[in-house]
Amino acid sequence: MINPYYKRLFIIGLLVICLGMVSGCAGYPRLLNLPPDLRVNSVNSPSTEMNPQISSDYLVFASDRQGRQDIYLYDRKQLELIDLPGLNSIDAIASEPAISTDGNYIVFNSTRGGQSDIYLYNRNTRQLRNLTDNLNAQVRHPTINADASVIAFESSLNGQWDIVVYNRYGQALNIP
Amino acid sequence: MIITVLGNTRIFQYSQTLLGKIFPRLRLKGTGRAKFALILVLLFQAMMVGCTTVAINSSMVDGAINSIATDEQPALSGNGRFLVFVSNREGQNQLFLYDLRRRSYKTLVELRRSLTVMESPSLSYTGRYIVYSANDSGRADIYLYDRLTYRLEMLTRGYRGGVRHPHISPNGRYISFEGSRRGQWDIEIIDRGPNIELDTETSLSES
């Protein structure tokens, strides 16, 4: 004979599990909860966050949480920001980052003294490379593919915004 | 070269029989007939050459990424094959999907039908999912378009605030964007859940 108290407990437990399953299944697509945090080490802050780009492991974005606009990289597995030594500089506004799938390459737009350039940052070697040094035009909106072999961005070389496609080494690909 | 030679001999034979049919009274024999047929072949070839040069020129114009209009906000697919961007070449901001390998456009039939201003497109790994923001009724929303099933889905239904700059993860599960529900631009992430079809290397096997 089962104790009626345990029986009731069992039914309530079953109900809770069912409800949880139902709400879990019906909840997609779902908005993740990313509350602003006063700590510097979180996705959102009391400052403005801009141009987030997500992959399964990383989230890269621009933020002015430390008084100037910089690029930040968030590790979605470890739930913390990753240091990007040498990427941000005091005299430049960094914006519009994009990241390769392995998280090694970050391409972004850097404005220094009215001149905008597209930079490629290599996290392994910590090297920063200006891809548009020889392009005498304003540039913006860089994008990179998964293995960082192709980079595209906008250029104002012809007096209007046009699209330019480069490889990782800053050479223009032969595309009409 | 071989094909053109083969083609020419076939045209040659055909024009010879054709000559016999059209001009039964023209009693050209042997070399005379052959010469006449040869002239026809040459004429035909000149015509074909003219046609193909015209075709190449027009396809060069259609197949180029940039136009005389503004082309902006490019986004690459994860495999680097497709480039989606916004262009006002047809009068209003529309999305264009360019195949970098084939140097040609893919049509986005479902998306071109709506008369909305589209912005900030983004592609998943093989370009199966396209995420963009569109201003439909004075309010920007984020849409997800599945190129395999031709389904268009609004992702920000019920979101209290402005949205902009969406970006889809290469596998297609997560979408990040800027949202203003807390009174400033913050990062928001939508999880499409574990049951969606992920966009990986093999999922959209079109050559």
UniProtKB/TrEMBL annotation, chain A:
Name the UniProt record assigns to this protein: WD40 domain-containing protein
Organism (species): Limnospira platensis NIES-46
Parts of the chain that traverse the membrane: none
Coiled coil: none
Family note: Belongs to the TolB family.
Gene3D superfamilies named in the record: TolB, C-terminal domain
PANTHER family in alphabetical order: PROTEIN TOLB, PROTEIN TOLB HOMOLOG
Pfam families for this protein: PD40
TrEMBL record, chain B:
Ranges in a coiled coil: none
Key words, A-Z: Membrane, Transmembrane, Transmembrane helix
TM regions (residue ranges): 36-56
Signal peptide: none
Entry annotated with the keyword Hydrolase: no
Pfam families, sorted: PD40
Keyword presence, Transmembrane: yes
Domain of life from the UniProt record: Bacteria
Family according to the record: Belongs to the TolB family.
Protein name listed in UniProt: WD40-like beta propeller
Phylogenetic classification of the source organism: Bacteria, Bacillati, Cyanobacteriota, Cyanophyceae, Oscillatoriophycideae
